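Progress note, sequence design subtask.
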């Protein structure tokens, strides 16, 4: 019995008992949004080609991180909030408001959460 539980992936804490806020999002659309907005100018993002950059942090393993931008607990709603307007969440951030709409931010969040 103990070994049977080892292979099962645990549901994320933010999702337990709740509907998935990214259920309508599309990770592949999110990758295209990342390319269109040129996010690789500041971040290394797995699966997105671009110059090596160290302005912002690399965005691999987003699902495993405790915080978004170092200030918000890492939940889909907070990641979308951050992507839509980083300076509103942390006025000291160097990340600008890129003008993503809600659907684009959800798609980008869905993509970033695939980067384990």
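Output:
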């Amino acid at each position: 019995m103990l070994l049977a539980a080892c292979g099962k992936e645990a549901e994320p804490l933010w999702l337990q008992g709740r509907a998935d806020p990214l259920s309508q999002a599309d990770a592949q659309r999110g990758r295209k949004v990342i390319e269109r907005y040129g996010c690789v100018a500041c971040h290394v993002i797995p699966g997105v080609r671009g110059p090596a950059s160290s302005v912002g942090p690399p965005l691999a393993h987003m699902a495993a991180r405790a915080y978004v931008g170092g200030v918000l607990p890492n939940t889909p709603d907070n990641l979308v909030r951050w992507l839509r307007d980083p300076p509103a969440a942390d006025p000291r951030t160097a990340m600008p408001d890129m003008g993503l709409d809600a659907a684009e931010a959800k798609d980008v969040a869905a993509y970033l959460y695939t980067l384990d």
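The first helix runs from residue 2 to 6. Work on this subtask will continue into the next period as scheduled.
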